[in-house]
Protein 1
Amino acid sequence: MNATVNAKPRGRQFFNNPGPTNIPDRILRAMDRPVMDFLAPEFLEIHRACFAGVKRILKTDQNLFFHASTGHGAWEAAVANLFSPGELVLVIETGHFSLGWKEMAETLGLKVETVEADWRKGVDLSKVAERLAKDKGHEIKAVLAVHNETATGLVLPLQEVRRALDEAKHPAMLLSDTISSLGSMEYKMDAWGVDVTVGGSQKGLMMPTGMAITGVSAKAMEASRKAKLPKYYFNWELMAARMPQKFIGTVPVHFFFGLQESIKMIEEETLEGVFARHARLAEATREAVRVWGANGKGPTLYGQTVDRLSNSVTTILMPEGQTSDAMRKAALERFNLSLGGGLGPLTGKVFRIGHLGDLNEPMLLGCLATTELAMKVAGVSFGPGGVDAAIKSLAS
Ligand SMILES: *Cc1c(COP(=O)(O)O)cnc(C)c1O
């Protein structure tokens, strides 16, 4: 037997992708139980608790749907439920994920206009306000926005998009993708006047991939009754009529076993505590990267607008002319550290450190130190002292 081929790395894998994220043992244990009839009173109680808990996390008192799909399914549900063929929507460009939602909306038969943006700086919100003000005939039916652009590591201030809509007295709905900010960064669906919120299970909620969440305002429910795009599995009205679970087909009970535990964990820490921990870990990561790039030849923060840098993921730009492939490969294959790569046009040009979900200081420091090790092994130049800077940030 060839020992090196069959050898499994010792210790845990350090998993710092910005999704999926680490699944805590508590959630795995909660899911490790026999199946249950989804009409059983015991399950209905779990299901009820999950609906109530996710509404508290989204900060909404409105409608909520779970879809047995990834976040992409919830994107599709939002588009298919709200619009009729040929209607116009406005996509705020943030990066790879915003363009994905745009492509989906076009494919499903909508007209899509984009407010273009510099991916490193984030959108100039006055351009959004201008476009809305110009739309006197209210042709634009909705604004589609990615709250936390996981590809670039920048946040979009949704309150300001709301303000732009209000100031223009524009009735367009506001749709937001909170897939990588849900349960890791502040989000207030009702207070921010978001009509549809799209979330997923495998990021801040620390769950396996495969359950999507959609918060729907009363106004969006009303729009869905008039919308003519075809839908069946994702049809909110049909789902709402399937009481009490609001599911078309078999209810994935194990997801709810896990979700109940996830909500419990988040609320034990308190939402504010969860957000503060993410902010702390994110700032320590950024401090390390600032030092790596301080020699003028090392990797730097991709995002250039300081007050929009994400607390759930940091995107790091490689030095000119170098790809991130070799250092990511070394990190994974030699040291069992999984880092995120670049998406779309950023492939090879950046790498991403996910610092969301079930993560603490030692895990982050392990990741940052091993990232330095992988850069050294792969011959990437970087300023020394990044880990020290992170320690200093975490200690303060
Ligand atoms: C992960 C992610 C998606 C895609 O979600 P899936 O569950 O992989 O379909 C969409 N938008 C954002 C912002 C994401 O981070």
Note: The first strand starts at residue 14 and ends at 16.
Protein 2
Amino acid sequence: MNIQENVAAIKQNIAHAISRRTAHVDKSPITLLAVTKNQSVAAMCEALAAGVTAIGENRVQEAQKKFAAITDAEWHLIGHLQTNKVKAAVKMFSLIHSVDSERLAVEISREASKLNKVQDVLLQVNVAEDSAKFGVARQHTLTMARLINEMPNVRLCGLMTIAPYYDVAEEVRPVFRETYRLFQQVQQLELAGAAVTRLSMGMSNDYQIAVEEGANIVRVGTGIFGERIYV
Ligand SMILES: *Cc1c(COP(=O)(O)O)cnc(C)c1O
């Protein structure tokens, strides 16, 4: 299997997953985000040639090294963002998935204002209450959504979650279902200036389940590029 075949197969799987969705799930189009941590520019170009339009990077520094070489894609930040990297992040990323504190949102707004930019962000929620993961606790979701929405140069676009890894992928479904419920609650706040339309959840092993449960951004690395090689 090569990158092109992998992308085609994943798109087909996404289409099938959409057809299995239950009626309550919102029908927005789905973004296949190619997660390119540890991938070369050449591999990234292959994915773009295969029809991927959006790239997800975990680390600001790695993205900076590759950013100039790839101009025809949307860049998303999916990894934890330290406040001292915000300035660089705001320059590159059209969507930051990993906003997990008020302090970070304040800093993003401040740096975005210097660029006359309104930075689109997602609130990362630690729905599975996994102590090894970032994200706000479930019960703080609505409070944090309101706080982020008050910042002038940040636009809240939805939620992101990183689910735990299960050997049996089906076990993850309740996490995605709960995240979708929180997403709907944030939508029901009807925050002025926000555009709560994006729900980022699902990775290589479970993106089909995530789509069935309402994801409209799936973050797929291994499924497109094969196993990552860490050097
Ligand atoms: C690495 C990573 C992914 C992609 O993981 P795969 O299992 O390789 O698809 C998705 N989301 C985040 C936040 C990641 O760090």
Note: Strands lie at 31-35, 54-57, 74-77, 95-99, 119-124, 154-160, 198-200, 217-220.
